[in-house]
Amino acid sequence: MTGDAGTPEPREPALDETIHHPTRLAVAAFLSACDEAEFAAVRDCCQVSDSVLSKTASALEAAGYVGIRKGYVGKRPRTWLSLTPAGHDALTRHLAALQDIAAAAQDAGARVRPGPVP
Amino acid sequence: MPAQENTPDGGPYATAPSAHGAASTLQGVDIARTRAALRARITPAWFGPAAAAVLIVPRAVDFWGNGRGFATLLSLLLSLAGLVVIRILIRAGQRSSGVMVTESWAARVKRNRATSLPVFAAMGLTWLVCWQLGADGPTTRLAAFTVGGLGVWAASLWRNAAIRQQLEDLA
Known about the structure:
The structure holds 2 protein chains of 2 kinds.
Chain A: H1 22-32, E1 36-38, H2 39-46, H3 50-62, E2 66-73, E3 76-83, H4 85-112
Antiparallel strand pairs in A: 1-3, 2-3
Helix pairs in contact in A: 1-3
Chain B: H1 19-41, H2 47-65, H3 69-97, E1 99-100, H4 105-111, H5 113-132, H6 137-170
Helix pairs in contact in B: 1-6, 2-3, 2-6, 5-6
């Protein structure tokens, strides 16, 4: 996407409903740190069950945020998950929005903190 | 453990994200990313012995041939094949860890310098000791590369143990 001047439009922080849920966010964050991860590795590291991860991955795939690749290691079937560029973008914007919220609250807290009593 | 997908609880910021919820979510994201990076660095149990064999076998062939032309040529060919095998082993190791991360050689070397420097130092020291004792070329090379191979194996075991400990600490 480009602006009128032909320069890339700045991507503004925005909360994304699709990765709003903690499980989806944990999966997206895990996948953002690697090129591709096997289903079992994601399940173990995100501490979710097979069915929950399957459901989460399907939802993220439907949104275009996660790519699912099925293959074999020897004769064993394996499923590999990866975050798509759209997923990376959505995650970046979502995290930026969360950082803004946390920073705003910190600033507000600093402003209302009472000074020393004379 | 994150809230399950099919539970109504949306976590620390189910309706509107609070500052506390946002901060704890960001912390969770950092932990998930760290877990992925650590998991990608775990090498399978066979990696250490296989890498040791790749380092030692060509030198053993060289030693067995006692510097004769055929044995030297064979050890050189085995060394070249060993480089290819190491590349394949690294790739296979990553795949078996379940997490694939593309990393440049420079970054990999920088990350592993804490374990590779002592191995190189031990190899150099062995080389020096053998040279001081008057050992011939093939013997010196075999001794140094045997120390190097065993060092790589030990480093692999140590690194995996350290990573597993870090993963446990994050759990």
